[in-house]
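User: Structure with adenosine-5'-triphosphate, tokens only please.
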Amino acid sequence: MTPVVEVVGARKSFGAMVAVDNVDMTLLPGKITGLIGPNGSGKSTLVDLMSGLQRLDAGEIRHGMVRLNRMAPQEIARLGVVRTFQTTRVFSQLTVMQNLLVASPDENRAAHFINFLKLGRVRDAAAGGLSYGQQKLVELGTVLMLNPKVILLDEPGAGINPALLDEVKSYIASLAESGIAILLVDHNVELIRELCSELIAMDAGRVVASGSPSSVLASASVQEAYLGGRR
Ligand SMILES: Nc1ncnc2c1ncn2[C@@H]1O[C@H](COP(=O)(O)OP(=O)(O)OP(=O)(O)O)[C@@H](O)[C@H]1O
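Assistant:
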């Protein structure tokens, strides 16, 4: 299977702190790859690098034949590599429908995703008035309007109630089934276990384990990273 995104030897420092240190990662069409690691291990920085919000110091990020390294976030998104944020970003004054139309002015498509995400009842409500979990869905809808080949999900499960989390799980699974490659960054081990076919664990900027979720979660380096009492 041809990778949709390949990260090779990615490195990023902030002053003396090496936030991402020689990281490799491959995202495949239709596959959900999990990314875990303690706070500050470099997960968001890696997503920032892949989405063009930060520049690599060394290494490469490829989408097919195209190198994403020096591209602006909008160009990367236009190629179909899109992301959500740990802290949800919606236009609070705009309605749900208008939020989706900002990404791409196609009402039929927007209506389709509003339906898919079960946001029909709030389609004309200001996004700022919705619950945090619903705002996350609006953000996901916006991302889907961009016709993504890859979605980088930065903590989609954080801060939402268990019922909505079940819905989010099913949306992520069905997006992968449609062929989209997904990177799922989350601290929720159950979510990771249920959804991911591959899991990568980071600690202090480095990949410390990768492989099947069960093997990675059981690995000594992951146990050490989370329970080692260093933080
Ligand atoms: N813009 C920045 N300037 C300086 N340091 C940064 C910047 N962004 C991240 N860092 C540092 O890089 C390291 C990795 O941070 P990052 O946010 O990528 O970790 P994370 O694994 O996503 O953590 P969390 O689970 O808390 O989101 C941290 O030490 C952080 O303080």
